[in-house]
User: Which sequence fits this backbone?
């Protein structure tokens, strides 16, 4: 009996170390950032059982075999559609502004198409007005409405959108809605799901969370895109979830969430439709190919270079593209950079790029919310302040709510707006979407909005920050250790 017990113990110890070694090799073979690899190794070796479980659920399974297979083949199936798009040479802009040239060349090389022109852009900053404009477009829709959101929280303004969609579906408009399972949990438990489906609206619960799925993919991989496509011609995208800011997360006591969206009319909607069709196929296995409408050409001012690139990220999409675009944009800056982000956990490369820009004489301003709904991010992000401030970056803390807008303006010309935060999750994990806009008129509008944010913010004094209390520095460092996993 004693011998049997010794054999079982020996096999258990051998199996345990074999698993630890195999995971170690797996971490090192993925060629991830050293900080991230070290964080995972520390977790696994210091808290072995917990570390192994966390690794399996949050790293190894990732997207799941079925979805991953679809994701790896979906773009090849859309080559015909893309070739048809490329045949319309008149919608592409190959002569970009000086600051945007490198970024657009990168996007063309990695995504296969040039920037698209002949688009009418409008920057929207007030949620109530955004919803009002959106509802008008929903009622005017003639063919189809495609929607994807991370969060849809029933109540208030969100219910007005639901009613408009139901009425449009009943008059024959093809409506598809895709919502993240975790982010839109309240919606999927509400009456609206049944009401919408009864009206003919197709609703998909993206990356569904249940016990079965826990063993098939990463549970923290999220569908974080936020965009609406109407008649394959009008599109909305930006930072706003489909919520009423007066009702959303009131218990967090951070004030109303402040967002921005872009409304676009024009051929760039074709590429948005391609992204949506890929997401839909990954979730449902079904192919959808929206019709390509006959576009009205929007007259552009003379001598004005205007073009848009759509950057879509996530499993199956162009790898590391958002990170590369961010770095290229920042290194292209010569005069001014203004960044707004609610969550600041940059990669080392991104941090160094921002600091280097300030050190070479570029005016760099960073606007973040003073109050944050994530205590982990709130404390971990502060570790970066010292290095940024020492480099000459101005850091503004927005005081009139949770500034949720994600925007970057380079030299008043190149704008990046979308769903991606400056954190590891947005840069390398989630399904995100970012618009890269080369347009001086749009840049001016974004500049005015960002300056409005600054007017409601407090500038951090580098001298006062340097003498903050010791216990605050300790807490920041402790949360910083978790930053590669955030």
Assistant:
């Amino acid at each position: 009996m004693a011998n049997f017990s010794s054999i079982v113990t020996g096999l258990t110890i051998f199996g345990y170390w074999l698993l630890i070694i195999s995971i170690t090799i797996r971490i090192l073979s993925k060629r991830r950032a050293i900080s991230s690899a070290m964080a995972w190794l520390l977790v696994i070796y210091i808290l072995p059982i917990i570390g192994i479980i966390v690794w399996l659920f949050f790293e190894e399974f990732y997207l799941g075999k079925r979805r991953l297979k679809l994701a790896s083949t979906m773009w090849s199936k859309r080559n015909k559609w893309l070739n048809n798009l490329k045949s319309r040479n008149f919608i592409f802009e190959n002569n970009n502004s000086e600051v945007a040239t490198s970024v657009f060349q990168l996007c063309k090389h990695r995504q296969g198409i040039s920037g698209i022109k002949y688009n009418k852009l409008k920057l929207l900053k007030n949620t109530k007005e955004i919803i009002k404009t959106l509802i008008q477009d929903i009622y005017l829709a003639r063919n189809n409405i495609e929607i994807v959101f991370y969060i849809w929280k029933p109540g208030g303004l969100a219910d007005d959108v639901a009613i408009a969609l139901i009425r449009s579906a009943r008059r024959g408009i093809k409506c598809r809605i895709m919502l993240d399972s975790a982010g839109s949990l309240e919606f999927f438990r509400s009456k609206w799901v049944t009401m919408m489906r009864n009206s003919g609206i197709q609703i998909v619960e993206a990356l569904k969370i249940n016990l079965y799925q826990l063993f098939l993919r990463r549970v923290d991989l999220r569908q974080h895109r936020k965009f609406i496509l109407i008649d394959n011609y009008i599109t909305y995208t930006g930072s706003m979830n489909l919520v009423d800011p007066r009702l959303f997360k009131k218990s967090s006591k951070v004030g109303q969430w402040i967002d921005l969206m872009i409304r676009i009319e024009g051929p760039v909607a074709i590429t948005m439709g391609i992204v949506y069709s890929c997401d839909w196929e990954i979730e449902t296995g079904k192919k959808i190919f929206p019709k390509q409408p006959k576009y009205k050409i929007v007259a552009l001012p003379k001598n004005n270079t205007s073009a848009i690139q759509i950057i879509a990220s996530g499993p199956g999409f162009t790898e590391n593209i958002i990170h590369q675009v961010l770095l290229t944009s920042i290194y292209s800056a010569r005069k001014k950079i203004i960044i707004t982000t609610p969550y600041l956990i940059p990669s080392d490369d991104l941090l160094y790029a921002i600091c280097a820009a300030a050190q070479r004489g570029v005016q760099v301003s960073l606007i973040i919310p003073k109050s944050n709904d994530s205590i982990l991010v709130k404390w971990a992000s502060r570790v970066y302040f010292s290095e940024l401030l020492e480099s000459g970056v101005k850091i503004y803390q927005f005081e009139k709510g949770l500034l949720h807008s994600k925007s970057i303006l380079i030299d008043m010309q190149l704008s990046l707006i979308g769903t991606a935060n400056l954190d590891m999750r947005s840069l390398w994990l989630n399904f995100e979407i970012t618009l890269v806009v080369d347009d001086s008129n749009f840049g001016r509008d974004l500049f005015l909005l960002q300056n409005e944010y600054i007017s409601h913010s407090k500038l951090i004094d580098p001298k006062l920050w340097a003498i903050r209390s010791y216990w605050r520095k300790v807490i920041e460092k402790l949360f910083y250790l978790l930053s590669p996993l955030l």
Notes: The longest helix spans residues 2-29. The chain has a mean pLDDT of 85. The CA atoms of residues 224 and 472 lie 32 Å apart.
